[in-house]
Amino acid sequence: AQTVTQSQPEMSVQEAETVTLSCTYDTSENNYYLFWYKQPPSRQMILVIRQEAYKQQNATENRFSVNFQKAAKSFSLKISDSQLGDTAMYFCAFIEMDSNYQLIWGAGTKLIIKP
Amino acid sequence: DAGVTQSPTHLIKTRGQQVTLRCSPKSGHDTVSWYQQALGQGPQFIFQYYEEEERQRGNFPDRFSGHQFPNYSSELNVNALLLGDSALYLCASSLALGYNEQFFGPGTRLTVL
After folding, report:
1. Which residue has the higher pLDDT, A68 or A101?
2. Does the beta-carbon distance from B43 to A50 stay under 8 Å?
3. How confident is the model over A7-21, as pLDDT tens digits?
4. Cβ A20 vs Cβ A92: under 8 Å
5. Which of A41, B22, B60, B90 has the fewest beta carbons under 10 Å from its own?
6. CATH number for the domain including A8?
7. Would you say residue A1 has pLDDT above 80?
8. Residue B35: which domain range?
9. Using the beta-carbon criterion (under 8 Å), do A93 and B42 form an inter-chain contact?
10. Residue in chain B nearest A32 by alpha carbon
11. Structural domain range at position A30
């Protein structure tokens, strides 16, 4: 079965610190995309970063980077120099390219950045 | 360029009633997906519409139905509402079938009493 597990329900760090959010997933497919989405209190789901499974190089977007371990089916998100505006729910998700195009989501991690 | 819009923002219904939620996709997008997000959980895929047809469906009962119009906007209908249908309903639009980035609307918060 396709599943996404986020083992940290809530995390909090001081502003400017680095924080890593964990995600593991399960799929039998070899061709898929992985995502981290951010959902602030405004509820708008925003794409933070994307990783194609066939790419070995970890994706980076400014202060956001991932550690993609395909064999371990692990996909963690690192936020550097955290800012107050990073406070939000963060969801890990993936989509299989060969069988369907449904986004499969984790339960989320609530991240609080403290001033 | 308007992003994905959804209406209404909030909605309160009672058990057994029917509800219709609406979504207008981002300009240029032709595919609409609907998700249900219960409180404290991640979204669950309901279904996806393309060319006015339901192309994929998640594990939701037939009480959940939808429609896509020629202008690509979409409706989600839920009949015989249950307390468990209380959730945030998210609409996402993308370009064509297959994987293209999905852009999300702000959601409709449905409360069933």
Report:
1. A68
2. no
3. 999 999 999 999 999
4. no
5. A41
6. 2.60.40.10
7. no
8. 5-112
9. yes
10. B99
11. 3-114
Regions of chain B short of the pLDDT cut 70? 1, 97-99
Q: Which residue of B has its CA nearest to A31?
A: B99
> Which among B109, B29, B36 is positioned nearest to A103, based on CA atoms?
B36
What residues of chain A have any CB closer than 8 angstroms to a CB in chain B?
4, 33, 42-47, 50, 91, 93, 95, 97, 100-108
Partner-chain contact B42 A105, CB within 8 Å: yes
Indicate if the pLDDT at residue A68 is higher than 90.
yes
Interface touch A47/B42, C-beta < 8 Å:
no
Partner-chain contact B42 A4, CB within 8 Å = yes
**B26: CATH:** 2.60.40.10
The confidence band for A79, taking pLDDT boundaries of 50, 70 and 90, is very high
In angstroms, the first-to-last Cα distance of chain B is 37
pLDDT of residue A99: 64
Tell me the pLDDT of chain A averaged across its residues: 93
Whole-number pLDDT of residue A76: 98
As for how many domains chain A has, the answer is 1
CA dihedral A67, A68, A71, A72 (to 10 degrees): 50
- The three-class DSSP label of residue A85 is helix
Three-state DSSP class for residue B9: coil
**Closest Cα to residue B104, out of B45, B20, B38, B18?**
B45
